[in-house]
What we know:
Elements: H1 12-24, H2 51-62, H3 67-71, H4 75-90, H5 96-103, H6 114-126, H7 133-140, H8 152-155, H9 164-182, H10 189-219
Helix pairs in contact: 4-6
Amino acid sequence: GWPDVGQVLLSKRDAERTRAEILRGDGTREEPVFCGATLSRRKHKEPRVDKELERNREEAADFATDLAEVLDQRPEQRLQWLQKALVLAGKKTLKVQAVYDIITDKKFVAGAKDKVGARMKAMLLGNLHLFSPKQQKAIQSESCPLSRFDVKAAAKPAKKRDTSGDKKRRKRKRSRSSSSSSSPPAPKRHCARSGSRRRRSSSSGSKSGSSGSSSGDLNA
């Protein structure tokens, strides 16, 4: 004999089932089904922080949006303020309504020259897409304080100083200095005078000698 004589042979599925029941215990659900150990733990992903976005938000928080504070600035400073405000509004870190309320005030362009006002208007017209259709219509209307400025004045280049005359003068000075350095030095005047004096003295001496000799001949 075989050792399994008198026993019922089970199929593979039944054998796996009985094995699982033995591992479970006595077959009740009070005991845990799986008593293994945790081999790995799930790591929770930390949310990514956009440093550039945080920087823009901090910059927008420190940006001046008070009407009185902006109007106290000089026209050139208001131009820089408008440029920075449009940049922050394009990044959606500054409310467009706050910018619109300031630029539509009549005192915003007070004391501004034509060139500064034209640059302000050119900036606004180039960034109209940031504003709503109603705001765009108000900015382009004649009631807007910036309507009196001409955008073409901002595109005009500054007048260059005519330096052609200065260059010609410099060339003339250089040519004179070079010619003076190349020419030989003029003779001194006192030398010529001394030579003439010597000639006169020698001629007077010869005359006196000749007069002496003539007088001696007469006496003889």
